[in-house]
Amino acid sequence: MPYHEFDCSKCIPERKQHAVLKGPGETISDALPLGYMATIPGTISERGCAYCGAKHVIGTPMKDVIHISHGPVGCTYDTWQTKRYISDNDNFQLKYTFATDMKEKHVVFGAEPLLKKNILEAFKAFPNIKRMSIYQTCASALIGDDINAVAQEVMEELPGVDIFVCNSPGFRGPSQSGGHHTICIAWFNDKVGTLEPEITSDYVINYVGEYNIQGDQEVMQDYFKRMGIQVLSTFTGNGSYDDLRGMHRAHLNVLECARSSEYLCNELRVKYGIPRLDIDGFGFEPLSDSLRKVGLFFGIEDRAEKIIQEETARWKPELDWYKERLRGKRVCLWPGGSKLWHWAHVIHEEMGVEVVSVYTKFGHQGDMEKGIARAEEGALAIDDPNELEGLEAMYKLKPDCIFTGKRPGEYAKKIRVPYLNAHAYHNGPWKGYEGWVRFARDIYNAIYSPVHQLAMVDISKDEIDMKKGFETRRGLSDAHLSVDTTNNALLRQYTGNFDVMPALRAKTIDDYPYLNRGKSKHVA
Amino acid sequence: MEAAMDERVGLLVDYIMKHCLWQFHSRAWDRERQNREILTKAREILCEENEEPADRLDRCHWVDAVVLARNYKEYFPWINALSRTEIVELMQKVHERMDYHTITGSLNQELTDQHY
């Protein structure tokens, strides 16, 4: 598998080892991009920092917590509300962000008093919230503020309050992934095992590495509850601080994003003997196998099968409608970390698109192993690309759509390539059976949007067809389909609701007849 | 004969690589355990010799093995016509190739990190 050198990066020869082209018959043992390395001087990385990784990605989705940054206000502002990790408590963690607003004088004279003042003010402003996470930043780390000591002092002064300190300043690692690592280990060391949870089922899991983007966690939790499984905690989307202190009592860790939180599952396995089951929540077949495995583990596979049959019957005809219209379209999977391997194979299998490139901003070599192994031949795999490389790849590969973050997404639009937000989604949730159809619909809408068709015309040189009339998505997508396909009564477009969350959240215990009933005969 | 076996091993390994995640735990010792436990159990299931384990760690490997064996039988129906001896030989070679791709021949520099 040859390394790929970008023309724009010839002046940075180290970059050559960060991209490979998957050739015929080649495997991950032939070549693998370097990963999780310090960004090479001279290349303008699109990564986030370790503080962002700890706070923005992992910590903040916890819903019943005051999340406060000890540092300049910009650190907090730039990690506020840019990812749609919603929650079922009116999005407290999204609505409010807190910072100690360190200035130059605090750098000179110290900011511990400022921190304490801010903590007390925050608890006073939100008297119903008794939990807090404090995030160290570069500034407070460099001056040596003892955040743990201040937190301890406050906990002694305010009974009933519990505070978690995450010492992951921006420079602690080559990318946001360093922050994922730090916060996982810190949470495990400082908080897991400090509260005994209430166990209400014989089947108990932690759902780990799931951040409830536009409701993903609530979709998956619904499946688990329909199987009678207690989701003891979710790390961390829609997750509760105290639930996560009781992770040590689960029977099984169901791991979704291994990139961000496998560390936690590995430690829980070593210390508490809780097994780690890696799953895929995206795509009909991978999700079905994942539910089967969880069901098998607890001896309740029949319950999983019932869900699989119901959901597949309901949503597969709609997925296939989009598959007929997306077949052969070229896409780039350019997410942050785990989605490159969650999607690389199944999006090809179940939506018919060709994955011409996978990349990761902060993934490790293990993520590239998974992504390249799952991608088809001809895929260009890139680690930590810079903007020029992204542009060069798009000009060369000519994708019909890219799935990425908002930074590369914006320059993709400038060169007339439609993009979907892989981190925060467009019209999610994208997990679950219905979610996968919603993702297919978003891809369809992006590729066939008449707006994009117009944008692809360069009025400075292209000839404008003045006789061309009004265009619609359907007209564009069905132009080259056979009559048999367009008239296929078994297939249909998405028929779900605009917002799927109200119906999910309206469910009561009566909608989950298996919950708190039945005995496990298998789990020791 | 050898070429046919090689092709079959390639198909089964490619299936794991595209559909499974258990082979890519982050450290070499984890990958050794995952490959050994899951592929051994999958072989036993294919040979109809496996018992359902009660221990939770064992059980987690077993569920991955059950689903793998089922999918092998569904997507590679020729496996149903193999004798026990042939399945043992086939799965041994699958195990060896998986160990090569994910451990001994892996270019992942983090496999030997002593910490999680």
Secondary-structure map:
The complex is a heterodimer of chains A (about 525) and B (about 120).
Chain A (H helix, E strand, L loop, with lengths): L18 E3 L28 H10 L6 E5 L2 H5 L14 H4 L2 E2 L4 H6 L2 H14 L5 E6 L1 H5 L4 H11 L4 E5 L9 H15 L13 E7 L5 H11 L3 E7 L4 H5 L6 E4 L2 H15 L3 E3 L5 H15 L2 H26 L3 E4 L5 H5 L2 H6 L2 E7 L4 H10 L5 E4 L3 H11 L3 E4 L1 H9 L4 E3 L10 H17 L1 H6 L17 H6 L4 H4 L14 H5 L19
Parallel strand pairs in A: 2-3, 2-4, 4-5, 6-7, 6-8, 8-9, 10-11, 10-13, 11-12, 13-14
Antiparallel strand pairs in A: 1-12
Chain B lengths: L1 H18 L8 H19 L9 H20 L8 H21 L12
Helix pairs in contact in B: 1-4, 2-3, 2-4
Could you explain the architecture of this structure?
The complex is a heterodimer of chains A (524) and B (116). With 524 residues, chain A is α/β, with parallel strands linked by helices. Chain A folds into 3 domains: 50-173, Rossmann fold, CATH 3.40.50.1980; 204-311 and 501-511, Nitrogenase molybdenum iron protein domain (Rossmann fold, 3-Layer(aba) Sandwich); 315-486, Nitrogenase molybdenum iron protein domain (Rossmann fold), CATH 3.40.50. Chain A has helices at residues 50-59, 73-77, 92-95, 104-109, 112-125, 138-142, 147-157, 176-190, 216-226, 241-245, 258-272, 284-298, 301-326, 339-343, 346-351, 365-374, 387-397, 406-414, 432-448, 450-455, 473-478, 483-486, 501-505; strands at 19-21, 66-70, 98-99, 131-136, 162-166, 204-210, 230-236, 252-255, 276-278, 330-333, 354-360, 380-383, 401-404, 419-421. In chain A, the strands form 3 sheets. A 6-stranded mixed β-sheet of chain A has the order 1-12-11-10-13-14, sandwiched between helices. Chain A has a 4-stranded parallel β-sheet with strand order 3-2-4-5, with helices on both faces. In chain A, strands 7-6-8-9 form a 4-stranded parallel β-sheet, with helices on both faces. In chain A, helix 8 runs parallel beside helix 11, helix 12 (284-298) packs antiparallel against helix 13 and helix 13 runs parallel beside helix 19. The two termini of chain A are 46 Å apart. Chain B has one domain. Chain B contains 4 helices and no strands. In chain B, helix 1 crosses helix 4. The interface between A and B is large, with 45 and 32 residues.
